[in-house]
Fold Enoyl reductase (ER) domain-containing protein.
Amino acid sequence: MANLAAIIPAAKAPLEVHEVETYKPGPRELLIKNEVIAFNPVEFKIAKLDIFPLQYPAVLGSTFGGRVEAVGPQVTDFQVGERVVVSKRFGVVGNQYGAYQRYVVVGDTMVSKVPADIDSAIPASLMMNLTCVVGLFTERLGLDKPSLDGSAKAKGLGVLIYGGSSSFGGLSVQYLSQAGYTVITTSSPKHRDFVSKLGAAAVIDHTLEPDSLVNELVAEGPYDIVVDTISLSKTVAVTARVLTAQGGGNLYAMQPAFGPETLPDGVKRVFEPWSDPLYEEKNRGLQEWVIHEYLPQGILWGAITPLPIEKISGGLKGVNEALDKMQKGISGIRLVADPWE
């Protein structure tokens, strides 16, 4: 049962495939035979831009799906052979927890069983961002959970989701509109048809020149909540102006500024790893609802629409290609790879 991993040997270095140990799970851990890696844009920033300090050599990767190979002695909810998808907690240290390998260790909390006849790549592509969506909107901001049967009543609260064709953005639009909130979002013309089916009240063309884009977004407001799912300097410049036009407020972002940032008076960038609230003991019920109910049932019932999936060829040797693609910029798709290919 040899284990291979795509390892980053030093900061900003290309990843290399090497044989590594096959790990043993701890008392409340599982060992997963990894069958699909789902790539997240933050991973190219870690690998290529060195935005977070790491101990090298390192095995990166946060989200994956596979079959339970072994369980620790205190694990009671999972059995060998079950198909699961996993999202690693931000900041967890140890190469055994990185997704860019064939066998991965995970704690027994943020693990969701995959329904029969569902391709594991689908929930794997959703897992990380969906937990972040729930952590931000329901735990931190106190908004209602959605109703899978479409029975939610309309609420008098408006939300701007900048970046509706991103994974976080598209899931946010669905989550909030299903809960009865009025959502305005943005998209390029290329992805407008897809985004327009997710439940937003309006989809604004983000390729407009900045002044026109700000004017159109302001005209659809005011907003009780503004979220920038792209969170780059050029998008923050737009969303901050929208907030300024309505008197300022918090700008919820997907990443910190990573450098000096000047925002208009009254506007504050707010960021934390948005899945973190689900690890807090007081939110155990919310976490269990996400991973055991909303994710699997939402997929089965068609309430959650995933982005189209593009498979990177070459298995672990293709991880560098995936990182390159994300660095160049992708929109409207999720990248996955088969570590056994």
About this structure: The mean pLDDT is 94.
